[in-house]
Write a structure and sequence with these properties.
alpha+beta; Zincin-like; Neutral Protease, domain 2; Immunoglobulin-like; 3 domains; 8-stranded mixed beta sheet
Length: 645
């Protein structure tokens, strides 16, 4: 799910989508952390592990004008051992008035640790399918962030829920275990009529709307969902929505994208949500058919600025393209396959972040995707430490679980680097196999499950790759010592230092672009496995520039390239700051070094600026993106990479 801390806006550019994504991602991860905050230390009850959920019938009565709910929840489950008691997760603010088993009242107790304990009148034997019906009511405690929220929009009342990770128990009796999904559910939402015209509120929930039954002063809406679903992805919302649909053709098996939006936002939403069809078609082409195609996809506007990927209906605070893409991506990665623990959160968030990047790669210019990757790398390397995979201690920190730097950005770039390592064919085949795997589809997976499937698809041992980039911390800084040893050979020596001692050496394919004196271009990918490794590359032109990682495919920082008679000390003494910048770069150097000329190149190796003014470098006229700066000095030539944001 998603959240919102507004950052200062990036300068307007031709690639506004990439900039918009940065702000949205920060908001997304902030919302998720806030939603988790008050519940994170209270995980699901271990006492619920002795039964297997099968089905929920959820009957709720709510009034958008009141922070109150009353309901009757019938849960079917299969006993995994002989049961004399059954536990549910439910906050003690909710008042349970009755529990029935086959119409017979059962004894129950509510505890302050958010447990509802039902003592059975007769034992349920191992392997037996049975059910309990719980009648309850109360004013759900508002955390200030969600779970169950009563608020307003444009003066009109609204009720909405958001339960990630452990907020479902705040408004209905459930089992908050990521690894036990109910196989299906029915949701009945009864709401009062409103205003003098006796109009009915519009309700939304997971699955497909089956009916609306109107009475004199109320209406009951029934939704049916027939896919496995964990408690945190169950959601309802009620207000005076306007409803409209887009259709996904889906190769002759069409389904609807149903949008529930505020009346005051109808016109703009109708324009902005159309892109959902195109994104749906892209993800279907890259991976597989939308996992819930027999039902629907949709959006429901709610009271936060971000979004939450509830199964079949994402709750949205706005309708920007990148937020739409992120939430839709979760329907595959997060909803069809849910992370097996919060240590594996990158399987949800890193994947959804990367799929949002794939939308930029497919829909926009190549330079836009380069800039998107460069922005991820800049975020990742803003601190020297940090692993994607969480430790046990990390799971007690909400900000660490939902770290935009690590769970989102680094998780996404690890996926991209994996794609570059194994190639597009094996990468996409591996993700397709992962989504189709019978042990994980519509269930859950852990990181080791994903790695095993990717190794099978690629035929490669990926232990070193994932150990360095996923489980360990930090990133490398590269120094390339380059020289043309003859008219037909070019030599590159690669060295690296690591930002964190957890990694002794980052093995990675290193992308390098050679640019000739007459504009020739040669792209290389060097399999760097050790420090001091030398590559002798045949060439048929004289090299004038060496661009390190021109497409921003590698997590690294402060890389140096020297060309000619290499002077590594000189490369380290010359600094461009601030980097990244939104306008002017300044050159920091020793007094003994004279910068005679500055040349600025784009990632294609095209010269975009040449200046004899060596006091600063003005990038104001250029769009956001990655640039390479060649500094010609009295002691040699040094190349630096910079990011304009």
């Amino acid at each position: 799910m998603k959240r919102f801390l507004l950052l200062s806006c990036f300068a307007t550019s031709l690639i506004g989508y990439a900039q918009d994504f940065d702000t949205t991602l920060e908001e997304i991860s902030t919302m998720e952390a806030k939603a988790a905050l008050t519940q994170m230390m209270s995980v699901y009850s271990a006492n619920t592990g002795n039964y297997d959920l099968k089905y929920h019938r959820l009957e709720f009565t709510v009034d958008p004008e009141e922070a109150f709910i009353e309901g009757e929840v019938t849960t079917y489950f299969e006993a995994k051992e002989d049961l004399t008691q059954v536990y549910f997760d439910l906050v003690d603010d909710m008042v349970v008035s009755q529990v029935l088993k086959n119409g017979v009242p059962q004894t129950f107790t509510q505890y302050a640790n958010d447990e509802l304990i039902v003592t059975l009148s007769e034992t349920i034997n191992t392997g037996v399918l049975d059910s309990l019906t719980i009648t309850y009511s109360g004013n759900p405690v508002s955390t200030g962030f969600g779970s169950f929220e009563q608020s307003s929009h444009n003066g009109d009342p609204i009720i909405w829920t958001l339960s990630e990770p452990y907020g479902a128990k705040g408004w209905w009796p459930c089992k908050q275990d990521l690894n036990d999904k109910a196989d299906s559910l029915d949701v009945f939402i009864t709401t009062p009529k409103f205003n003098t015209d006796n109009e009915a509120y519009i309700a939304v929930a997971n699955g497909v709307e089956q009916s609306q039954v109107e009475e004199t002063d109320a209406k009951t809406t029934h939704f049916k969902h027939r896919y496995p679903i964990p408690a945190y992805l169950v959601a309802i919302a009620v207000t005076n929505y306007e409803v409209y649909s887009h259709t996904v053709e889906n190769n002759g098996a069409p389904f609807d994208i149903v949008n529930y939006v505020y009346p005051e936002n109808l016109a703009s939403a109708q324009v902005n949500t159309e892109i959902t069809v195109d994104i749906m078609e892209l993800f279907t082409e890259l991976f597989e058919e939308y996992p819930f195609a027999l039902e629907k996809y949709g959006h429901a506007q709610f009271g936060w600025g971000g979004g939450m990927e509830h199964t079949t209906v994402s709750f949205m605070g706005s309708f920007g393209r990148n937020l739409i893409a992120h939430e839709l991506a979760h329907q595959w990665f997060g909803n069809k396959i849910t992370c097996g623990s919060w240590k594996d959160i990158w399987l949800n968030e890193g994947f959804a972040t990367y799929l949002s990047g794939l939308v930029i790669e497919d829909f926009d210019e190549p330079s836009d995707f380069v800039t998107w990757k460069a922005q991820r790398v800049n975020s990742i390397t803003s601190l020297p430490d940090g692993a994607v995979y969480l430790s046990d201690a990390d799971t007690l920190s909400v900000s660490r679980i939902f770290s935009s730097r690590l769970s989102y950005n680094k998780g996404a770039m690890v996926l991209h680097m994996l794609r570059k390592k194994v190639g597009d064919s094996d990468f996409y085949q591996g993700l397709t196999d992962y989504l189709a795997d019978e042990d994980h589809a519509y269930a859950y997976a852990k990181t080791e499950d994903f790695i095993e499937i990717m190794e099978t698809a690629s035929g490669e041992d990926l232990t070193e790759f994932f150990d360095d980039w996923l489980y360990q911390q930090g990133y490398p800084t590269y120094t390339l010592n380059c020289s043309q040893t003859s008219e037909t050979e070019f030599q590159i020596e690669i060295n690296q230092v690591q930002s964190d001692p957890s990694v002794s050496f980052f093995e990675a394919p290193v992308p390098v672009r050679l640019v000739g004196t007459e504009g020739e271009v040669l792209d290389l990918v060097l399999d760097n496995t050790s420090n001091g490794q030398v590559f002798n590359q045949p060439v048929d032109f004289m090299v004038s520039e060496v661009l390190f990682d021109p497409e921003s495919d590698l997590i690294s920082k402060n890389n140096n390239v020297t060309l000619g008679v290499a002077d590594l000390a000189l490369a380290k003494e010359l600094h461009l700051y601030p980097n990244p910048t939104n306008a002017v770069l300044y050159i920091e150097k020793p007094d003994s070094v004279v910068v005679e000329q500055v040349d600025v190149y784009n990632p294609l190796g095209q010269l975009v600026l040449r200046s004899a003014d060596t006091s600063n470098i003005d990038l104001t006229p250029f769009s956001v993106g990655m640039f390479f700066v060649k500094l010609t000095t009295n002691k040699g030539i040094v190349n630096k990479s910079v990011l304009k944001n």
